[in-house]
Amino acid sequence: MADFRTNLANFLSAKQGDLTQQQFARKIGVHQSSLNRLLLGEQNVMIDTLQRICKRLKCTAGELLDD
């Protein structure tokens, strides 16, 4: 069963190609350490951050949040 961090990691690898975590974090307006904590499940995603992630990845919040 997938969770947000798994879905986010999958979308990142599928849609961002060669972008590093730092580059993607910059594009969505967060620090790389914050993005890393999201991917590790150590931090909950804020709604505004989720919206920016979805816009950049061209996906819906439901696609990232559904398991």
Task: Explain what you see.
With 67 residues, this protein is mostly helical. It has a single domain, classed as Orthogonal Bundle (434 Repressor (Amino-terminal Domain)). It is built from 5 helices and no strands. The longest helix has 12 residues. The N and C termini lie close together (6 Å). The mean pLDDT is 91. GO terms for molecular function: DNA binding. It comes from Hyphococcus luteus. This is HTH cro/C1-type domain-containing protein.
Which features characterize this protein?
67 residues, mainly alpha, 434 Repressor (Amino-terminal Domain), 67% helix, Cro/C1-type_HTH
Secondary structure layout plus pairing:
Blueprint (H helix, E strand, L loop, with lengths): L3 H12 L5 H8 L3 H9 L6 H11 L3 H5 L2
